[in-house]
TrEMBL record:
This is Sodium-dependent transporter. Its main location: membrane. CDD domains: SLC6sbd_Tyt1-Like. Keywords: Membrane, Transmembrane, Transmembrane helix, Transport. The chain crosses the membrane at residues 12-30, 42-64, 85-111, 144-163, 175-196, 216-239, 251-273, 285-313, 341-364, 384-401, 421-439. The lineage of its organism: Bacteria, Bacillati, Bacillota, Bacilli, Lactobacillales.
Length: 441
């Protein structure tokens, strides 16, 4: 039996956790969620949700994971023996696999676009062309499934390499490149004529969008991008050594997540407004509007390749954590079974994701509660599953964890503030926003 894997360095853990948090949530989902929810107001509510609600829960997951030193289910069971709180871990596994099932579909779209951009095989220009192209990509069952399969194969290959040799190594070069590419694209975007309108949309509030529905969307976005409520951070923290400062790490991950989300807005909205497009295009924003934007700027083909490479990196850094949650439970203490577990769970995820991959094509007429299969999977996880998971984590950390366990993991200053937030503020805020938001859906 092999010894349990651990992060090789503090930076490796922070980059991996930030990679899990950032991903498609920040680069793909944040721009279209902000675009359809008023821009600046959504950004403000997202920042408040991230720091006031998401950060305390992120820290709670870090504490549970490191103290438990096991997979999410076993860690909770170890900290609360004889009780049924390990259901939080199983809920996290279910949520993460559903997210990965439709997340990998988007990963497949990105691979399709990246191949086209590198091979210069776009056979047209303009918004109408890219709108037709997007519909072709997502509705073609062969292309959708092949793309999804390739993306999951990449994810499985990295995760099967372990924590140090797979996930940490991949994040150590993907994350710095992601930041560099983002800065390049942001500088290009804000230098376009008329870019100021996009910056106003992102930073000047339109208070008419201040609604419970927007607040729930912002809360779901904060949970989605921080990967809280799905046991991902609990799993990653279980590979931490005792020397790592959890409060500092949680704050670093939260701030990096906010910065990347804002950078995504700065890359996209100035360019969109500069060239007269609409910001409320929904999920197709980065696949329809951005390619049309890049068509109209100098070296646009080069910047488009950079953008889709960036998007692929970010998607992979998140998908690793989602697969790792289930793999950690699948192998338990039999670490030599990691590769077998990664391939088996990856295959199961692919099968689960087939309906989402086909929901814009041959299953486009199928709906659940008025949602397409893909959109229903997104809604049920980000607006229901993750808030419920986060609420249960807050209750467990605030009322079930022994005070001595908390004192061993957090310094007194952090512990005092965090305990007030996690016991009183966070669960009430989640419950209130959750109930009000569901009523407005």
């Amino acid at each position: 039996m092999k010894n349990r894997d651990q992060w090789q360095s503090k930076m490796g853990f922070v980059l991996a956790a930030a990679g899990s948090a950032i991903g498609l949530g920040a680069i793909w989902k944040f721009p279209y969620m902000a675009g359809t929810n008023g821009g600046s107001v959504f950004l403000l509510l997202f920042i408040i949700s991230t720091l006031g609600i998401g950060l305390p829960i992120l820290l709670a997951e870090f504490v549970i994971g490191r103290k438990g030193q096991r997979d999410a289910v076993s860690s909770i069971k170890r900290l609360a023996p004889g009780k049924q709180w390990q259901g939080i871990g199983w809920l996290g596994v279910m949520i993460s696999l559903i997210i990965l099932s439709f997340y990998s579909v988007v990963g497949g779209w990105i691979i399709s676009y990246l191949v086209r951009s590198i091979s210069m095989s776009f056979e047209g220009t303009g918004e109408d062309f890219y709108n037709r192209l997007f519909e072709t990509v997502i509705s073609n069952p062969f292309e959708a499934l092949i793309g999804q399969a390739i993306f999951l194969l990449l994810t499985i290959w990295i995760v099967s390499g372990g924590i140090k040799g797979g996930i940490e190594r991949a994040n150590k070069w993907m994350m710095p490149l992601l930041f560099i590419f983002f800065i390049i694209l942001a500088v290009r975007s804000i230098t376009l004529d008329g870019a100021i309108e996009g910056l106003k949309f992102l930073f000047v509030p339109d208070w008419s969008y201040l609604t419970w529905s927007t607040a729930l969307s912002a809360l779901g976005q904060a949970f989605f991008t921080l990967s809280v409520g799905s046991a991902a951070m609990m799993t990653y923290a279980s590979y931490l050594s005792a020397e790592q400062k959890l409060g500092q790490s949680a704050l670093s991950v939260s701030l990096m997540n906010i910065v990347i989300s804002i950078l995504a807005g700065i890359v996209i909205f100035p360019a969109v407004f500069s060239l007269g497009f609409s910001p409320n295009e929904g999920p197709g924003l980065v696949f329809i509007i951005l390619p049309a934007v890049f068509d109209q700027i100098v070296f646009g083909s080069f910047f488009l390749i950079i953008f889709f490479i960036l998007l692929l990196f970010a998607t992979l850094t998140s998908s690793m954590s989602m697969l790792e949650i289930a793999v950690a439970i699948g192998i338990r203490e039999k670490y030599e079974n990691r590769k077998k577990a990664a391939w088996l769970i990856g295959l199961i995820t692919f099968v689960i994701g087939i309906p989402s991959a086909l929901s814009f094509g041959i299953l486009s007429d199928v709906s659940i509660a008025g949602y397409s299969i893909f959109d229903f999977a997104d809604m049920i996880t980000s607006k229901i599953g993750m808030p419920i998971g986060a609420f249960l984590v807050a209750i467990f950390a605030g009322y079930v964890l022994k005070k001595q366990d908390l004192q061993n993991e957090l310094n007194p200053q952090v512990l005092a503030t965090w305990r007030i937030l996690i016991r009183y503020i966070v669960p009430i805020a989640i419950a209130f926003i959750f109930i009000q938001g569901l009523a407005s859906l």
